[in-house]
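re the bet — no i am not wrong, look at it urself. input seq straight from the record:
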Amino acid sequence: MATDSMTIRLHLRGIRVDEVGVDSPERLVVVVSATNPRAQCPFCGFKTATVHETRTVQVRDLPVGGRRTTLAWRRRRFECENCTERHTEDHPEIEGHLTRRLARQLVLDARVMTIRAVAARFGIAWATVMAMVKARAKLLQDHRRRARCRVLLVDETSLRRRHRYVTVLVNGETGEVLGMVKHRNEQALSVFLVQQGRRWCQGVDVVVTDGSESYTAAVRKHLGHATHVLDRFHVVRWFAAGLVAVRRRLQRREPRGHVTPAFDPEVFRARFLALRRADRLGEAEHERLQAVFAAHAELARAWGMLQELHGLYQADTEEAAMEALGRFADLYQDDPLPEFYKVVDTLLHWAPEIFAFHKGGRWSNGRMEGTNNKLGVLKRTAYGFRNASNFEARGILLCPPKPIT
């Protein structure tokens, strides 16, 4: 016996090691067979021990000591003693030509690696790894979509940057991705809701979307009973657009093309500071803003109006939000700024969905944005996707990360 030899266990239940076929520095082949002497006939249910023939099947297993490991499984074909039908035995530790633990590891690695990298790591075909990932994702998706979803988050993302969008649907309470549907229109969301069925849709109490008219039409058609909330991140960005437009107008120095620098340095440097809420400013930051506002009264009025619009979400109740809206209306009527015309139009158009934030339990698409960040990392890892179904399978396994069993 070699001086560096040792005995280790295979740790596969119901599997007996018969012999070691190949033991080289590059690969390991172990001849195994099942320990159960009998098998139940799938035709009549009778347990038989009569073996008609034995065939050797190559089954890939996890590497041992860095070597690719193959199990040469002596798979028996039984002949039933009751109905004389023949059948081939199955084993719970083996899935096709892979052990169950290897299949589980493939899925785990596919969360953080490309399918090509996983296939190269274990010496398995790309199609085999992708099929395993899709199968596990389908099981997980079916389980998620059967459960009740009280809060539904809806948003969009692209397979590649600005190419071929898909609609992403997330359970707001658990953060689990329920599915990804091709396109970002009314039909895409409607197809998902129709597939879920009327009973599932009736269980949805709150649905959060961005400012998409297409999604809104689908929500009104299939989830009319639910509280439709417009995501606060998108709303605040619309509100801030008025201040940004005022700041851009005021910072430009005249005559254009003949003054260096072209923008007022103090106003330009305060562009991010002016977008922050007043309660999040330090004393030094507040003084810096007041110095800028002293030289630009219009910018000060725009900032004051934006703070009242922030109050719509800072308010604890819908009544307090209406009071903040009233204060904004007073400021706007006293000296309206042209840049806020569009803000007012948007506010009037989406008022029910904006104020539903308080009635619907203060839900937002925050979890959805976190999911989109994870999907963005996934897209960068894979250098973009062309197949929407492959992207959906990877996304379902990734968000949120849960143990694969």
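see?? Residues 232-359 form one domain. told u. also The chain has a mean pLDDT of 90. so pay up
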